[in-house]
Write a structure and sequence with these properties.
This is Nucleoside diphosphate kinase. Its cofactor is Mg(2+). By secondary structure, this protein is α+β, with helices and mostly antiparallel strands. The chain has one domain: Alpha-Beta Plaits (2-Layer Sandwich). It has eight helices and four strands, in the order βααβααβααβαα. A four-stranded antiparallel sheet has the order 2-3-1-4, sandwiched between helices. The protein is globular, with a radius of gyration of 15 Å. The structure holds guanosine-5'-triphosphate and magnesium ion (MG). Guanosine-5'-triphosphate (GTP) binds next to helix 4 and strand 4. Guanosine-5'-triphosphate binds next to helix 4 and strand 4.
């Protein structure tokens, strides 16, 4: 299955939502293959948000993401990136459907609780995984329910 990168942002950590957010993905059937609690420094923030370098909100983005610890993790499963994006919801919580993470926990565009790799940006998932994790930090294993989650081998 495909791997994808997800992160509980500083607001989500401070609000005690790590477990809740992780649970949603676990219960959906996505497999946790890596996880790391860290505080992002300026250098990592500028690499992670390189695509937004020229946006007017860039400085706010970097100061927010470095403002406190985050919980970064890697999920694996069929179409993991798209599955995760649909569970995360629209970027602006105002437009995110109830039932999505941002639609249930967020109110503000600049405090939208989670980051997830963009499925429309080819290779963003593996690029972001490599930015935060060494390959040896990720574990390849089978979850006991895998044969019940998928019709065919994937
Ligand atoms: P991420 O998963 O966090 O990357 O969100 P996204 O992919 O849904 O949105 P995008 O990559 O376009 O933007 C990255 C982050 O910048 C968003 O999660 C928002 O927190 C923030 N952001 C996006 N657009 C705006 C904006 O117009 N104004 C402000 N203040 N923040 C924005
Ligand atoms: Mg994005």
């Amino acid at each position: 299955g495909e791997r994808t990168f997800v992160m509980v942002k500083p607001d989500g950590v401070q609000r005690g939502l790590i477990g809740e957010i992780l649970s949603r993905f676990e219960e959906r059937g996505l497999k946790v293959v890596g996880g790391k609690f860290l505080q992002i420094d300026e250098e990592l923030a500028s690499e992670h948000y390189a695509e937004h370098e020229d946006k007017p909100f860039y400085d706010d983005l970097v100061s927010f993401i470095t403002s406190g610890p985050v919980f970064a993790f890697v999920l694996q499963g069929a179409d993991a990136t798209r599955q995760v994006r649909s569970m995360v919801g629209e970027t602006d919580p105002l437009e995110a459907d109830p039932g999505t993470i941002r639609g249930d926990y967020g109110l503000d565009l600049g405090r939208n609780v989670v980051h997830a790799s963009d499925h429309e940006d080819e290779g963003a998932n593996e690029r972001e995984i490599a930015l935060f994790f060494d390959e040896e930090d990720l574990v390849d294993y089978e979850r006991i329910d895998e044969t019940w989650l998928y019709e065919e081998d994937h």
